[in-house]
Amino acid sequence: MTALFLRDLKLSIRAGGGALIGVLFFLTIVAVIPFGVGPDLKLLSRIGPAIVWIGALLAALLGLDRLFQAERDDGSLDLMLIQETPLVLTVLVKCFAHWTATSLPLVIASPLLGLFMNMDETAIGATMLTLLVGSPAITFIGAVGAAVAVALPRGGLLVSILVLPLTIPVLIFGVSATYAAVEDPAPFLPPFLILIAQTLFFAVIGPAAAALALRNTAD
Prior knowledge:
GO terms for molecular function: heme transmembrane transporter activity. Keywords: Cell inner membrane, Cell membrane, Cytochrome c-type biogenesis, Membrane, Transmembrane, Transmembrane helix, Transport. It is a multi-pass membrane protein. The structure is a single chain. The chain is built from ten helices and no strands. Helices cover 82% and strands 0% of the residues. The protein starts with a helix and ends with a helix. It is an all-alpha fold.
């Protein structure tokens, strides 16, 4: 499992620019917002957490279609299906490797973009924490879409279409927890705990559904 994690981590970083492309896309989304809404610093500060979360969500969708593509291209997907290691565990490790290579850099870059949106220290810290907790759920959901579209020649767009609606609850509670941490007396803990629960739920359901989809694709 360690070897698989390191292999997928290298593939995720090398393929299409890896983390750098995701961070640049994240930066581009957030950077164009002030040009659209104007130089109102109070408005930017108010909408900043939501914009950072939306940018991170869209950037996290990049590369999801390649989650199982390398195994499909070189034929090792068939070996994954017949190996002794449970396929669910293999998918879980691949998801962690993909999250480490693509989503974790977005979490690290979020404070810088928070400053760009004129967010205060509390908002920046809450946004970074909620992204750290909530972004794995996006990867687990995306694994299902990637498994469904792995056999399709142009499955990248299909993955985004399948995954994006399912990630809306993660976005809602991630943004809600961030605003709750900034605006008293709204409580931070309830939406944050729901966000954690969503990540744990999809950590179980996502790999299992992806493994089932991969088996059906092979059949």
